[in-house]
C-alpha cells in the first residue's frame, strides 16, 4: 500500500468520524450517524471523480463505505466520552483536509497531467465533505469561520503537486503536502490565523460617477 493510498483511507476515516460527531451533537439515531459519516467521508472524493470522469472510488472499492460505517458505529458508542465534540470535530477535520488535499491532487495529476487541475481537485476533495456535513447537520459552516480553512487545502495540494512535478519521490511529496496543510489549518485553529475581512464601503452616488 502506497503512502498516498494510506492517506486516502485515513482521510475517509477521519472525515467520516467528523460526520458522526456532528450526528452525535444533533442526537441522531444510528442511521443518522451512518448517513452523515458516509456523506462526509466520501462526499468530496465523489464530486472529484464525477468531475474527472473516472469511476467513483467507493463504487470501485467498497472498503471506503465499510470504513465510514465502522467509524459511525465507533462514534455512536463512544462520543459521549468526549467532553468537547465540536473541538475534536475541528481537529479531525484538519487531519482530513491534510490527507485529502494530497490524495485529491495526486488523482487529479494522474488523470489530467495538469498541475492546475491537480491543485483544484485537491482543494475540492479536501473541503467539500466538510461543507456537506455542516449543511446536512445544520451546523455553522466551516467556511464561515474566521480562521483559515480553504487556504490550508490549497497549501497542501500545491506543495504536493510542486513536489510531484519537479520529480520528488511520491512519499516525500505526500508527506510535505500533508504537513503543510495540517500546519496551516492547525495553526489557524490554535492561534486564530485569518485573513483581513472585507469591510463594506458605501457606494458612490450617481452624480459622483464621471
Description:
The chain has helices spanning 3-25, 30-52, 57-60, 63-78, 85-112, 115-137, 150-165, 170-191. It is built from eight helices and no strands. It is globular, with a radius of gyration of 18 Å. The chain is 74% helix and 0% strand. It starts with a helix and ends in a 19-residue tail after the last helix.
Comma- or semicolon-separated keywords:
210 residues, mainly alpha
Summarize, please.
The protein is an all-alpha fold and 210 residues long.
Segments where pLDDT lies below 50 for 5+ residues?
Answer: none
pLDDT averaged over residues: 91
* N-to-C CA distance: 65 Å
Indicate the structural class.
Answer: mainly alpha
Total of DSSP H or I helical runs spanning 4+ residues: 8
Major β-sheet annotation: none
Structure summary, number of beta strands: 0
Order of helices and strands: HHHHHHHH
Inertia-based shape: globular
Amino acid at each position: 500500500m502506497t503512502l498516498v493510498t494510506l492517506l486516502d483511507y485515513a482521510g475517509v476515516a477521519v472525515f467520516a468520524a467528523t460526520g458522526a460527531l456532528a450526528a452525535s451533537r444533533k442526537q441522531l439515531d444510528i442511521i443518522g450517524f451512518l448517513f452523515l459519516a458516509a456523506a462526509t467521508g466520501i462526499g468530496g472524493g465523489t464530486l472529484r471523480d464525477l468531475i474527472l470522469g473516472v469511476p467513483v472510488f467507493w463504487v470501485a472499492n467498497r472498503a471506503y463505505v465499510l470504513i465510514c460505517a465502522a467509524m459511525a458505529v465507533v462514534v455512536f458508542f463512544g462520543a459521549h466520552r468526549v467532553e468537547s465534540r465540536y473541538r475534536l470535530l475541528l481537529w479531525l477535520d484538519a487531519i482530513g483536509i491534510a490527507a485529502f488535499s494530497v490524495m485529491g491532487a495526486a488523482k487529479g495529476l494522474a488523470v489530467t497531467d495538469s498541475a492546475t487541475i491537480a491543485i483544484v481537485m485537491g482543494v475540492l476533495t479536501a473541503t467539500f465533505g466538510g461543507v456537506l456535513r455542516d449543511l446536512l447537520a445544520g451546523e455553522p459552516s466551516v467556511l464561515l469561520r474566521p480562521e483559515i480553512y480553504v487556504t490550508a487545502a490549497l497549501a497542501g495540494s500545491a506543495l504536493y503537486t510542486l513536489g510531484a512535478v519537479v520529480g520528488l519521490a511520491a512519499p516525500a511529496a505526500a508527506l510535505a503536502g500533508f504537513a503543510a496543510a495540517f500546519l496551516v489549518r492547525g495553526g489557524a485553529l490554535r492561534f486564530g490565523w485569518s485573513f483581513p475581512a472585507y469591510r463594506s464601503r458605501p457606494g458612490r452616488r450617481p452624480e459622483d460617477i464621471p
